[in-house]
Structure formats: structure tokens, C-alpha cells
């Protein structure tokens, strides 16, 4: 996993997550390495799940009413 997790973007996290699976499938890995890879996989999975949700929270709509523009939050479903 990159040293600075806050610099991680969705695409690179997903790519790294995909690269971990084949590494975990190798039988020659020692237990310590397998645990480390598993931990990285969990962190990256969480990041990839949270990133779209957090982005959705920031979406706003520019509305025009009577010639003036307003920024309003995007309506959430549910």
C-alpha cells in the first residue's frame, strides 16, 4: 500500500487491490506475508467502498431561480 494513504485515488487503490489477490493465492507465502496482504486488502476494500459514497455526499446542484443562481445539495434517495 502506498506510504501516504491520503494521496491514494480510487483507480490506483482498485488496481492495487486487484494485484493483491494473485499474491495471496501463492502457496509459498509465509503466514506473516499472508496476514500483511490480507490487512492491505481490507484497507483498500474499505477505501474503494467509501470513496464513491463520500463523493456522492459532495455533489451539489446549481439552480437558477428568478435570474439568481443558488447551490443546493443533491437530493438523496431513501
Automatic annotation (TrEMBL):
Its main location: cytoplasm. It comes from Candidatus Nitrosacidococcus tergens. Belongs to the XseB family. Coiled coil: none annotated. It catalyses: Exonucleolytic cleavage in either 5'- to 3'- or 3'- to 5'-direction to yield nucleoside 5'-phosphates. Bidirectionally degrades single-stranded DNA into large acid-insoluble oligonucleotides, which are then degraded further into small acid-soluble oligonucleotides. InterPro entries: Exonuc_VII_S (IPR003761), Exonuc_VII_ssu_sf (IPR037004). Keywords: Cytoplasm, Exonuclease, Hydrolase, Nuclease. This is Exodeoxyribonuclease 7 small subunit. GO terms for cellular component: cytosol; exodeoxyribonuclease VII complex. The lineage of its organism: Bacteria, Pseudomonadati, Pseudomonadota, Gammaproteobacteria, Chromatiales. It holds the Pfam family Exonuc_VII_S.
